[in-house]
Amino acid sequence: MRAYLDLTNRGQAQRIRLLARQAVEAFGLVDARLDLLDHAENTTFRVTAPQGRYVLRVHRPGYRSPAEIQSELWWLDALTREAGLRVPRPQRTPDGRWLVQCQVPGVPEPRDCVLFEWLDGR
Q1: Residue 36 in contact with residue 18, Cβ under 8 Å?
Q2: Cβ atoms within 10 A of the Cβ of 1, count?
Q3: What is the reported pTM?
Q4: Suppose 97 and one of 91, 93, 108, 118 were both cysteines; which one would form an S-S bond, judging by CB atoms 3.0 to 4.6 Å apart?
């Protein structure tokens, strides 16, 4: 198996897709379709499942700590709940977590993953 860092951008995104599949299952989504949106600083996928539409963000390692990511998620949730603003609301796993850590062979480090509701844009 080629080293992750030796892969093209597309090759890396294909490996991250395997990890993303693991993440959406951790969020309780079954039969989900994953469409790559971007593979740059983070890797993001549009997730279409019987339960709804979402965005999965797979964080690159070492950029933000789990505590920093949690802080962002609390803030977004509070903006929705307390201020009534329409922002991408973070989704929880069946056991109540906002953040899951996933790892698959061929991707060198566990990755923090978060799921947001999909908001239609213009």
Answers
A1: no
A2: 7
A3: 0.94
A4: 93
**Number of other residues whose CB lies within 10 A of the CB of residue 2:** 10
Do residues 89 and 117 make contact, with C-beta atoms less than 8 angstroms apart? Answer: yes
Domain residue extents for the chain: 4-117
Per-residue model confidence (pLDDT) at position 114: 99
Place of tokens 């690159």: 60
Does residue 8 contact residue 16 with C-beta atoms inside 8 Å? no
Whole-number Å distance between alpha carbons of 33 and 53: 10
Structurally, at CATH architecture level, domain 4-117 sits in 2-Layer Sandwich (3.30)
The Cα–Cα gap between 23 and 66 comes to: 15
Q: How confident is the model at residue 84 (pLDDT cuts 50, 70, 90)?
A: confident
For residue 122, pLDDT over 80 is answered with: no
Residue carrying the six token digits 């979402």? 54
